[in-house]
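Sample intake sheet
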Amino acid sequence: MGRLRVGAIRLSYPPPPRADRRRLWALIPGDLDTPTGGYRYDRRILAGLAGLGWRVEPCPLDASFPAPTSVARSQARQILAAIPDGGLVLVDGLAFGALPELAETEGRRLRLVALVHHPLASETGLSPERAAGLRNAEARALARARLILVTSRFTATLLAGWGVPWARLKVVEPGTDPAPSAQGSRSGPLRLLCVASLTPRKGHDLLLNALAGLRDWSLHLDCVGSLDRDPVWAEGLIRLRDGRGLAGRVSILGALADEELACRYGAADLFVLPSRFEGYGMVFAEALARGLPILACHAGAVRETVPPEAGLLVPPNDSAALGQALRSLMADPVLRRRLAKGARAAGSRLPTWQDAVAAFAAALEEALDQADWEARGVSQGKTQPFLEEAVRQVALDG
């Protein structure tokens, strides 16, 4: 008689009847080509899934999210209503957390997957009332998601603290493209590089205030990033730069094409970005891949992304500490070289985009398998037919 081993039992069930099992509706607010880390993550993942044979159906949402207009809500409702029952739907966190009512109604018939880059309530500059409202709305919406994909362990832990079950959380860190090591300025002023959209969360104001106290040092800062995400804030930063007498030492360049940005990375001696919060920080990974020493704040997931051997981390919202760390780095080329070596080593351990896409696809497949299992009554305790078949198969093997 065959020997029954529990580990050998594989419960199987019929494949889904639909031919389009690997069909994914992707709801992304705004323009997918927007030059931010979150949108770049979405672009690379969706393109990678298509390359693996997934049928990706882009469904653009209005750009007003995460503060949707009534028209934006209506459009989202119509898009979801048009997706057939059982459809696998990926919704970017900019929109998902702002649509709790739709998640609660459509989550009964659709397989909803949330992609959370960072919680909406963690954005800088929100009033306590607004932050609390966003957190409550996002928690309600996430309760209806079959799967919640996040880009860092930090964000997963944060959401678990909200009561989201760990079983529904999957971490898929961004990939990083291989890149040549930065060559630095070689001569002339020390070149600092900051890459981030000009928004309050990124902390450009802290950096400008820190630089204003370093007039005795020869340096130049290039700020690369969109001025369109928060035009009022961007205009205020330009006024701050000029008012601090930094116009000749700080270039605010706006968004750059990939080739030009690569040149800026290559010419930099130090990467600096004092974000007040990050859900991952893809630009830090890009700096690591180029072997650039990093100066940042230990805010959000930055401590996970930037290891201590690759950079200096200071408290958030502390321009004095930032200035002191800048002074230390500029005065000590040996320290910069040591951190550059650590950055190159850390960069070599980063996942590739192929790794990220494979992990993302595996998480989606797992969610589909679980949904199929539940649809066949397993979650209601109707497991006996499947167990009996598994036991028969094991017995036959013996």
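Comment: The longest helix spans residues 353-375. Residues 1-17, 382-398 have pLDDT under 50 and may be disordered.
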